[in-house]
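Backbone Fold Data
Goal — fold tokens
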Amino acid sequence: MDVTPRGSAVDGAHAASISLDRIGKRYPDGTEAVGELTLDVAAGEMVVLIGPSGCGKSTVLRMVNRLVEPTGGRILLDGEDVTRVDPVQLRRRIGYVIQNVGLFPHQTISANVATVPQLLGWPRDRRRRRVTELLELVGLDPTQFGARYPHELSGGQRQRVGVARALAADPVVLLMDEPFSAVDPIVRTRLQEEFLRLQAEVRKTIVLVTHDLDEAVRLGDRIAVLSEGGRLEQFDTPAAVLGAPATPFVREFVGADRGIRRLAVTPVTRDTVEPVSAATTAASLPTVPLGASAYDALGVLLTSAADRVVVTDHNHPVGVLTRARLLDWATPATDGTAHRVAQEESRSGDKRSSQQIHDGHRSR
């Protein structure tokens, strides 16, 4: 399977691959948090770990930077076994973002962002330039926010600072443990959109933990669904997880409305539209741009009296999508056709540019 992250080429100087080779965690009392888990994350890829409470997803994340020591297996960062590396030095190469941000309350925003560069002994001018660059990158004016303290910021602003701090030393990997769950739904959606934009620019290797399936579908290049004991039930693209659940556990976890969710990761492409006629172009029909999601197209139709939507490329009609076809896509496939449908959607999704993905998420 081609796991090159959707959207752009990988910059190998700023991202590292991660290989989990039968890693496990068993506590002294015999509790097995994670069994033997094997998982490979490509450089520059964003992988989302999801599963019910107690499935070990946060434990897996913390084993990567050795906040939790594995009791079995190997973790390779660009081929190097992290269990043989000094853990302090390792963590300085890995960004870490947690749910409650973890900013130092007695330090200014600028000082918080500069924490790791200062530990690494960067000169003051270099630290100052990096802080300015990162605050601008996450959408915070350095002149307005740099001298403030965490309690003077909103929850969403503090979360942005947390991301900036995690990126400060240009880590090769970014670990995120439910980073957006502590903010309200409107702010959460906005932060997710901004994070997609940010990832399109920095192209880091990211492993993100969430309990929110919609967030996993929106953000992940691939999704790893875990059950109790860190058992890997499925590891695939969002379209494949929703369109072809690999096990009864995954089918139950993604729910009966997985068809509607699948529309959000199914792009409208030239391969999926029907031919457009002169009569169609002359009619007053709603339109959606090429590259929009099928979810967007269905939303346009449901708010109009039309039975089809015209797909345009730079305002030129290239095809149509009918209401019936969109509703058919939203219907969970039978076991006999699910794999084929998911593969088609996944292949179509791989053709999207990062800008199309970003625009499609924004339009939701």
